Amino acid sequence: LLTIVLVARCCDLLSGSPGTGTLAALLLGFCPTWLMHSRMVFPECTAGFATALISLLLILLSRNPDAPHERARPFLLGLLFFFPAMYVRYIPLTVPLYLMIPFSPVLRRMRWLYAGFASGALLLLAALIRFPGPGSIGATNFAATGFNLAGAFDRLWLSWFDRNFGLAVYTPWVVLVFWAVVYYLPRLRPIRVGYTESAALAVLGYCLMFGPWVQHPGDSVPGRYLCSAVPLMAILVALWCRQGGSLLNPRTALAAALLCISAAFVAISIRVPIQPYRLFRGYTGIFQAYWGLHW
Predict the structure, then answer these.
(1) Can you give the pLDDT at residue 124?
(2) How confident is the model at residue 134 (pLDDT cuts 50, 70, 90)?
(3) CA–CA separation, 18 vs 10, rounded Å?
(4) 3-state class (DSSP) for residue 195
(5) Would you say the C-alpha torsion 256, 173, 223, 42 has a positive or negative sign?
(6) CB neighbour list of residue 107: distance below 8 Å, 6 or more residues apart
(7) Residue 97: which residues within 8 A CB-CB, separation 6 or more?
(8) What burial class does residue 289 get, using C-beta atoms within 10 Å of its C-beta: 0-12 exposed, 13-18 middle, 19+ buried?
(9) Is the Cα torsion angle 60, 63, 64, 67 positive or negative in sign?
């Protein structure tokens, strides 16, 4: 719930419109994958919360001329840079958000930001000394041997569109992030990296990683790995819908229509609390089934 509030606030600040923040809150709040993970011990929602908090700190501090004189918020922002060290799968999702710092004169002058970086590095070193065993930092199966280009497209496709475990089956509005990411990617001339560009790089890098990575989410909750990026997806899609200064356009109508499918899964599951792939079989049947339910 707190992540939903943070996402809405980010959109409010970036667009100057509370309607955009409300749209982002609805996209995330009625995301079946996000709601399922919120009551489990997987790290996905924790990672999503961390990215939303980093996003809000970056936006607030970059717009405040007095930010170089602050202490708490820059220090926390620097400390969160080392969050993915505890689960290295989130490096492509979290680290690109910090790319906007060299391009912001305000952020570059924050001394307490660098104090946070240093403190995070010390905490990481202390963890390595205290827990020297294999896998003490990051996931044990996230290594060079875990990547293979053979079959990468199939793995990427199925993580989105597998009937039982794909993210887009139950949260179809996420497919709009493909257009939003392309819209917000940094342009080379002149090169500029603000928050939206950083977020686009984070979502693109994190999602593409699940092509060459040979691990798969076919033994856990639908949309597990991609769930961590859903808060950033909600921000980018909501901002993309508002391009042109108004939400009254075909993009918003399309997002709202796709959101209705997610909302239907959420509403029905309140009365029938079972796995989403056992609901609306006529709808889910149009998607390919690769990972069987025996997983």
Answers:
(1) 85
(2) low
(3) 10
(4) helix
(5) negative
(6) 58, 61, 62, 67, 100, 101, 113
(7) 51, 54, 55, 58, 195, 198, 199, 202
(8) middle
(9) positive
